[in-house]
Amino acid sequence: MDRLGLYQEVDVRPFRRDASEPDKARQYYGIERRIVAWVTSQERDCDAFIAWHPGFSPQEHRRMLDRRYREQREDRRDAEMRQREDKRDERVEGLQRDLHKKELWVMGGAVTFAVLLGSVAAAILDGAISQGWEPSWWPW
Predict the structure, then answer these.
(1) 76 and 114 share a domain?
(2) How many domains does the chain have?
(3) How confident is the model over 97-121, as a mean pLDDT?
């Protein structure tokens, strides 16, 4: 006997060939019925399974199955599109970040150059004024 109590240690091959012995045949067919009953009563996970809804014809159940597969395909396609869009958006954001960094470097360089140029001009002008030179365009 197995753990479920359904199978017996019986070689069923001779019963199929020789069903002339009624007791053996009954024993075999009784086992077979119990096995079939047990197998059909078990829950099974199947992606293609659609629960039977009383009142619907097999054609309607087929349409339900087709609709479910179509929705799953559309969901997968939508998820792939969202993923592609997310990757594209990440690339665009990365390019924009890089461009912004470059702009900041250019602006920082320009400001540094302007400050340096102003400092040099102020130093030259300060030296000239300390030597007694006054530009003619000064109003005072």
Answers:
(1) yes
(2) 2
(3) 94
If asked whether residues 37 and 52 sit together in one domain, one would say no
The string over 93-118, giving b where at least 16 C-beta atoms fall within 10 Å of a residue's C-beta and e elsewhere, is eeeeeeeeeeeeeeeeeeeeeeeeee
Give Dmax over CA atoms of the chain in angstroms: 138
Domain that holds residue 87: 43-130
**Across all residues in the chain, what is the average pLDDT?**
78
Q: Are residues 53 and 79 in the same domain?
A: yes
Q: What is the pLDDT of residue 102?
A: 94
Measure CA 38 to chain center. Answer: 39
Return the CA Rg of the chain: 44
- Cα–Cα distance for residue pair 48/93, rounded to 1 Å: 41
In angstroms, the CA 44 to CA 39 distance is 10
